[in-house]
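ingest -> fold -> write
write: protein_1
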Amino acid sequence: MSDLRSGPRDVDAWATDESPFPPDSWGRTGSAGAGAAAALPWGFALVVVLLVVGRLALAPHLTAPALRTWATIFVAICVQALPFLVFGVALSAAITAFVPASFWTRALPRHPAAAVPVAGVAGAVLPGCECASVPVASGLMARGVAPAAALAFLLASPAINPIVLVATAVAFPGQPLMVLARFGASLTVAVLVGWLWLRFGRTGWLRIPSRPHGDGRKWARFGEAMRHDLLHAGGFLIVGGLAAATMNVTVPREWLTAIAEVPWLAVLVMALLAVLLSICSEADAFVAASMTAFSPTAKLAFLVVGPMVDLKLIALQTGTFGKAFALRFVPVTFALAVLVSTLFGWLLL
């Protein structure tokens, strides 16, 4: 029996042998494997030491009020936006899987210039925030809808849907003109941006995301499209939330009170504040109403700009449609939103 264990055997040879004993090399590693195994405990010990030292060194800073405020805002933005993002992704996946492409050619006017305002008005049927509009617009483009019409839908749906309008009416009791001004200004900006893209937009500026194709079954296509969009858009939502939380903490509140006394500057600052705060369109009316130092026109600019241009939206649009698109679309939308809201505020408020 000793000769059976005296020398190394090949594993395959031993597997066909009737000997009850494995070769000496069975279960043993070479010198490189032995070195890595020996270093593993030391690597684990180093990680433990770094964690302990890092906790002791960073603990005083992690409890700073500014950092806690930053963490609260970041979590609030993500938690507030995620349900609507999931809703938008599910709706986009449903459009991809269950709605035939021929439906959109029948539902929208054939001429793109006429399809833009129709798509803008159709945004009233989507009860969601701006996070939901990006994947839905992406799905519409992938199904053959003209990009100009899909972009009008993207801009209009977060601001003129019934939930947002009701929230605005509750936030501004006894001021129905604020609701009317928000509806009119938002729809006007959406249609104008759509027409501008139709006239000056270039195919190379817009990356229309490809939709994953399933095995032919509708529910399989639905699941694949939803997983694809959720993983893709969720990461950019987090990036936008990080940027918005940082700006919330770094902008001093005292500056806002001093700026509110200059009318034209107040409008511009409230528009920029809407970009930085990145508040969901269902809740932004209550924030605007709380800023009593600012004029109604400045508050309207906050309500019109926010659902169309904010940090998390910029991140989502960049990740979905490409950097070349965002570099052109965001400044034009912001400028038109400020101008149109100022005009509506002057006429109605």
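write: protein_2
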Amino acid sequence: MKMSLIRQRLVSQLKSASALATGLLFCTLAVAAQPFFSGPSVTKVAAETSFSGKGFVPNSSVTVMVKDPKGQASGYSAVVAADGSLSYRIVPQNSGAYTLTVTDSSGKALVSAVFAALP
């Protein structure tokens, strides 16, 4: 009887440890999966400027929304690389602040970057 009780407790502890390990792994993956997207904070008008990021869903379709200094927004389709990376080049035509927002196929904003174009 005593051996059976010890065995039950051990099995219970192992299940708890397994659940904890699974939860920690899930949390680690969730944190690691947060995408980022960055580039220079300042550039010149008419100069090609590159932005890049990682942590996106591999081979997924995204849209890079560009809001220019006049407040007008345009969307540009892109496909994330197999390693989860994304790059985007822009040539700002006006001076002022630009906002780039990467959205998923449902339109959910994933990440944004802001930069200023100077004359």
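write: annotation protein_2
The longest strand covers residues 109-118.
The two ends are 84 Å apart (CA to CA).
pipeline exit 0
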